């Protein structure tokens, strides 16, 4: 394809005379003669040495396609598109114009002529916009002319992807057909690296990435459903590769762009997909963060029911998250949020986790269980078990703060666990560096007091002495002031 050069000759008059004539020929069922005359003049207007008349070339190319479309000769339409795009020295603007013109006809052709003709035109457009030269013996070279057609190709591919997705939703479709159709739809979109397209608007680019993520998650769920539960999510044939791709796709979205008022719909769709991805990995803290972003959306805050639901989910997932500095910080910020006080049960649940007191599981289960087990979050048995685990871990941290040594039997009673479960919980928290503990099994004693170096002991002694001397000095000053006041009264 050729770059736009200086126009040497103007064929406007010739084109104005020819177009009515070719239109008349087409109406009299002489489409081939009309196309022949149009292409003959198009060659003259395209010739860089003689004319290089871009406006006239564009008019003639679009007129040729228009005649084929009006004659309902879709085979000739596909042939003409391919022919014009492969012409020697064809101008990029011309190819772009005919591709965009053909794309505008796609909905009408599908509605009037059916899927078969629509698919033929789609494949023709994808072939024209592919932008790859013929492969050599050793490598496949990328043709630079394909860059300016990247956005039209992406739009056509999106339409084809949606078509394959509809096949997977057919009422009588077999399981193998559903999987194949959905996989094809996902692969078509995943092949598009839209984040590198400079000609595509930011919003449209984001919409494409979200569609890629949505289809990848749909394929992943379908594959996971086929794998037996015992084999786990990393089993051969599972959807874990798709889950990873969806996570990578989420990193391509600019979250600051989603904060704009006009992009709230994309923001909600994005965080919904990210929540699904995080839940698959049981990354509860990430889920809580995503729900916090949803809750901060103006349209959600304006709707009381949606705002309440988002805040409830923040509470659920932040208490389900394993304890660390980030989780503790988010939990305390949530507890200080005035909006939480309106949700009495949720407020009390968060208060139980931020208060350094034991939470006996039977009491928690009887107090919160009847309500929580009816929610979509805790109706899942795994997440209810995870809540039990977080309560036990909280109790261990509380015991470690108030006890230096405790018998294993007493700790088992406080945690409402069996001795084996107690040891497993202690081991897990020690390995994660949440607490320091050592178990003396023969004596049945758990020691929470770590060995301290002489330097640490001296530093603590020095600090305590400074506090003590400070209190003594403060008391002495107070006593002197009281004595001076009393002596003035007597005088």
Kindly describe this structure.
- The protein has 491 residues and is an all-alpha fold.
- The chain contains 22 helices and 3 strands.
- A hairpin with a 4-residue loop joins strand 2 and strand 3.
- The protein has helices at 12-27, 31-46, 54-70, 74-85, 92-113, 115-128, 150-168, 175-190, 202-226, 240-251, 255-258, 264-280, 284-295, 298-302, 304-320, 325-335, 344-354, 361-372, 381-402, 408-415, 419-431, 454-490; strands at 405-407, 438-440, 445-447.
- It is elongated and about 125 Å long.
- It has a 3-stranded antiparallel beta sheet.
Concise synopsis of the structure shown:
The protein is mostly helical.
Which bin fits the share of residues in helices? 55-70%
Fraction of residues in β-strands: under 5%
- Give the low-pLDDT segments: 132-145
Described by strand count, sense and barrel closure, the largest sheet is: 3 strands, antiparallel
Strand order of the largest sheet: 1-3-2
Tell me, briefly, the overall form.
Answer: elongated
Mean pLDDT, to the nearest integer, reads 87
Q: Tally the helices.
A: 22
* Class by alpha and beta content: mainly alpha
Instruction: Give the helices and strands as they follow along the chain.
Output: HHHHHHHHHHHHHHHHHHHEHHEEH
**CA radius of gyration:** 36 Å
The overall strand count is: 3
- Terminal CA distance reads 111 Å
């Amino acid at each position: 394809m050729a770059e736009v050069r200086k126009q040497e000759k103007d064929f406007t008059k010739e084109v104005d005379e020819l177009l009515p004539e070719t239109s008349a020929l087409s109406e009299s069922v002489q489409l081939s003669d009309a196309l022949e005359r149009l292409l003959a003049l198009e060659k003259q207007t395209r010739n860089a040495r003689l004319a290089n008349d871009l406006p006239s070339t564009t008019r003639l190319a679009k007129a040729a396609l228009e005649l084929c479309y009006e004659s309902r000769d879709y085979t000739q339409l596909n042939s003409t598109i391919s022919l014009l795009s492969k012409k020697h020295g064809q101008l990029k603007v011309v190819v772009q114009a005919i591709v965009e013109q053909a794309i505008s006809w796609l909905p009408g052709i599908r509605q009037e002529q059916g899927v078969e003709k629509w698919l033929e035109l789609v494949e023709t457009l994808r072939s024209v916009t592919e932008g790859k030269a013929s492969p050599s013996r050793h490598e496949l070279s990328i043709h630079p002319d394909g860059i300016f057609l990247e956005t039209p190709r992406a739009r056509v591919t999106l339409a084809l992807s949606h078509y394959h997705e509809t096949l997977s939703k057919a009422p009588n479709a077999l399981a193998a057909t559903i999987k194949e159709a959905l996989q094809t739809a996902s692969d078509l979109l995943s092949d598009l690296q839209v984040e590198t397209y400079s000609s595509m608007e930011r919003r449209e680019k984001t919409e494409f990435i979200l569609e890629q993520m949505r289809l990848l998650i749909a394929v992943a769920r379908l594959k996971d459903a086929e794998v037996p539960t015992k084999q786990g999510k990393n089993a051969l044939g599972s959807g874990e590769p798709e889950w990873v791709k969806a996570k990578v796709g989420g990193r391509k979205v600019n979250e600051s762009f989603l904060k704009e008022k006009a992009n709230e719909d994309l923001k909600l769709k994005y965080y919904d997909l990210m929540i699904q991805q995080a839940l698959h990995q049981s990354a509860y803290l990430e889920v809580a963060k995503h729900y916090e972003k949803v809750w901060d959306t103006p349209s959600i805050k304006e709707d009381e029911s949606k705002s309440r639901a988002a805040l409830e989910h923040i509470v659920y997932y932040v208490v389900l998250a394993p304890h660390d500095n980030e989780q503790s910080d988010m939990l305390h910020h949530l507890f200080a949020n005035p909006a939480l006080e309106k949700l009495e049960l949720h407020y009390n649940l968060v208060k139980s986790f931020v208060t350094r007191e034991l939470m006996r599981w039977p009491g928690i289960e009887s107090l919160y269980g009847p309500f929580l087990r009816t929610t979509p979050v805790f109706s899942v048995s795994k997440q209810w078990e995870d809540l039990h685990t977080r309560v036990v871990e909280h109790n261990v941290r509380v015991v470690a703060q108030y006890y230096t040594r405790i018998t294993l039997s007493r700790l088992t009673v406080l945690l409402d666990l069996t001795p084996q479960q107690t040891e497993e919980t202690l081991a897990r928290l020690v390995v994660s560096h949440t607490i320091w503990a050592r178990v003396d099994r023969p004596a049945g004693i758990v020691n929470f007091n770590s060995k301290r170096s002489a330097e640490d002991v001296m530093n603590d002694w020095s600090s305590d002495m400074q506090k003590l001397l400070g209190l003594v000095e403060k008391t002495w000053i107070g006593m002197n002031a009281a004595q001076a006041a009393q002596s003035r009264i007597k005088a």
